[in-house]
């Protein structure tokens, strides 16, 4: 039924994105259930994984899930990632059958792309743990472009030039990357938020897994950490049907156009950005990112 509910979503153009709440764009299916979304009841032991799209959400889900299981990967090998960490914005309200968030036993793992200020208030009220992963804007833009090409439920992206403009101006689903990463950054010390970077995980997964184990209060021995690194490597996640989204039909994710597990690199933007685009990006970046915000590495 989850796949069926996705299939019923109509493809739109970037111009048809709903200028949803406070200028943040959303696909219409998110806006249609906005009220239920805001009334979502978080539980104190929920863990929320929040990202701007393409920041390595699925990678983080896999890491957090295995850390919470104390390094035991067996449970993760049975159930697709999208069922282990349901997507909050597309979580259908009752009376949909059990299996999604409302009927899922605690402790739940929940995925969202919402900016901090648009989260259902219960996450803050319940003082939930939240893991935020940020990825540098240039790689995120390129990854999001290829994702639009293959994800038939996102708007038609047009060509790279058009998409580049839309990304810079925040006219993409879930809005402005700049507002997203800085909005979560400002709140990170006010709530139980662990703020991680894609580039750091790529550089030293063991170090970032240690942060997760500390944050989630799950002790891991060296062997467990090694197992998690292996299980969540790009190569393994690309082959694993539970993490590579190959279970979704081609009229949702057409992986012949671009695989979900595409490259997983830092600095791939260099294969896509023209010199002029890079100059424009750098200029706007300096204006839009405050000195007090997070600082990103565009290459390792
Ligand atoms: P690319 O398109 O650059 O390859 P999300 O899960 O937020 O949709 O992000 C998807 C991006 O994260 C894709 O980036 C994907 O390849 C990358 N990714 C997913 N798992 C990864 C892993 N284990 N190692 C490195 N990158 C990974």
UniProtKB/TrEMBL annotation:
Keyword set for this entry? Catecholamine metabolism, Cytoplasm, Transferase
Domain of life, source organism: Eukaryota
All residue ranges annotated as the Sulfotransferase domain in the record: 44-291
**Leading EC class:** transferase
Q: Which PANTHER family does the entry mention?
A: SULFOTRANSFERASE SULT
Determine if Transmembrane is one of this entry's keywords: no
Q: Which Pfam families match?
A: Sulfotransfer_1 (PF00685)
Source organism? Paramormyrops kingsleyae
**GO MF annotation: an example:** sulfotransferase activity
Protein name (database record): Sulfotransferase
